[in-house]
Design a protein that fits this description.
Blueprint (H helix, E strand, L loop, with lengths): L5 H119 L5 H16 L5 H17 L4 E10 L2 E10 L3 E6 L5 E5 L4 E4 L2 H14 L13 H5 L1
Helix pairs in contact: 1-2, 1-3, 2-3
Amino acid sequence: MKPPNLSCLGILFLCLCASNLSAASKIDDVKSELLASHSQSAAVQQQIDQLHQSAGEAEHQYRTLMLQLDSVNAYNQQLQQRMALQQQSLSDIAKQLVSVTEVDREIIPLMLKMQQSLANFVAADLPFLRSQRNSDLAQLERDLKNVLLPVSDKYQNLLQAFLREEKYSHVMHSYQAQLQVQGGNMQVNYLQLGRMALYYQSLEGGESALWSQRNNTWLSLDSAANKELSQAIKMAGGQAVTRLLNFTLPEVLAQ
């Protein structure tokens, strides 16, 4: 048997080496492709994770916005109900204003008639505090005719005037004022005994009289009645102790 040809063995060795080199190169290529595939998979997975996170945040935002929308819708519904109630209130107020205007047109003439009736009553009453009472009535008439004064104030002033006149019926009151006499005026002390009687007495106490509503004049008092009147004036002014007095009344004096 002939020994193997060395040249053939070299060639075979070279072929084997070349084949190994080619296989190693392919393995490296596969490894590179595998690494690239892993890297791409990781990138894709990262994108998927980001999209999933974004979807979760979007869903959370969606639910939050829906809750806010429900709250806004409920609030808008309440506002609509309040607006409807306010609109109804405005309508009611408008009707009331029309009613108040109509009442004003009716009540002002009525109050003026009441003021005139009160003025007529004062004119026919005992002539005590005549100047003051006439001044109050004139002011009341100006108030009632004042277009800038609220109706409530006018009514209050009218009511106070009636109450003030009613109070005069229950007091014993003394005051100083002028008395018209022949030849001029003189300062005297007046004594008002409710609406029952009105007296005057000169400041020195020597002259006194009782007003006669029937005769529309003053009737002189005698010395005994004058003395009682002096005591009554002091009592009304708080200058004497209260006690029973024998008043001379118009009906008694007229007899």
